[in-house]
Description:
- The protein has 16 helices and 8 strands.
- The chain has 400 residues and is an alpha/beta fold.
- Helix 9 (217-237) packs across helix 11.
- It is flat, with a radius of gyration of 25 Å.
Amino acid sequence: MPRTTPPPAEVVATPDRLRELVSSLRKAGVFALDTEFERERTYWPKLQLLQVATESDCAVVDPLALEDLTPLLDVVLDPAVVKVTHAGRQDAEIFYHLTGKAPGSVYDTQVAAALVGRGDQVSYSGLVQQFLKVRIKKTERITDWGRRPLSDAQIAYAADDVRYLLEVKRRLDEELSERGRTAWLEEELAFYNDPATFDPDPEKLWLRVSGRRRLDRRGLGILRELAAWREEEATRRDVPRNRVVPDDVLVDLAARQPAREPDLRVLRRLHPREIERNGANILAAVQRGVDLPPEELPDPPKAVRDDPETALLVDLMAVLVRRCARAERVAGGVFGNQDALSQAVRWLAGPREDPAPLILRGWRGEIVGASLRDFFDGKLTLGVDPASREVTAVPRREGC
Length: 400
């Protein structure tokens, strides 16, 4: 049975107490997990606090007071112990950075909530309010977690982020089981076990650069080289990407194709100190892109708005997806955005070779995949029920 009163919080700041805590977590086999970190001035997030809770314990671990977090990191990586988190991707990234391994057996309550229709990207406090009628205070949301000593208010706030998570998980598990969706959650959480989730492919970093759509294929090839270089430099110096070279400057460099250092100095937002430090490296990256043979240049990503017919199909399919989501009581956003639907349109219009886009396979395929295929093939049409004014999807009649 779950606790009716959440356990009090304890600050763990000694090796002996940490080992005792880890032993308790292993014995429990499942525990709530959250972190507080800072990354505004760094590339890698700096762990400043770590919170855990079981049915009997609630602890705030102080990593700034502990030289060795290995016992705790080991249990986080242990696939035999379930870690319950909420929107925990950034937390998992911290552990991947510290250990070089993806955390094992993560249960994300935000993901689970979407699968039972409790909202797209619902907040932790929102779930606690829905299930437990408890209102979590937000007084320390923008506090400095690197400050020591920790105040009582900071400790209480940090503890609240985990003390209700196990009960939220229990309620979500009940709803998932009632609707036969436990396997869906396992499928959705697989990304936590994949190192590629936390270790970006240098060849694809250019796809994250804003403003890239104004470049031609040659410019995109140069941008690809520049983005890969910037990532390596940012990780080496442990500073944010845009602290090295901002996105708009990367795009300008790719468009201008500078060949000499004086060509760099005309870029107003490329800092002179960065030119002194890395001017030669920037020019070398540009030259690598210039030298790429045409067949190795990247193709511009297709945007929905680039093709009016595709855009119209995507809009209609989005209506069909929302209808299915409402009928099945699933948060609509878990099916994907416009890009996901445009991928489906292109796949349906092509040879339909495996693998199909995500929205057309797995549990998503069970809910909306067949309807999207039938709609694209002209076997299904959208209409309106005049009595309820609800959107309907019915087989297409001959002559329609």
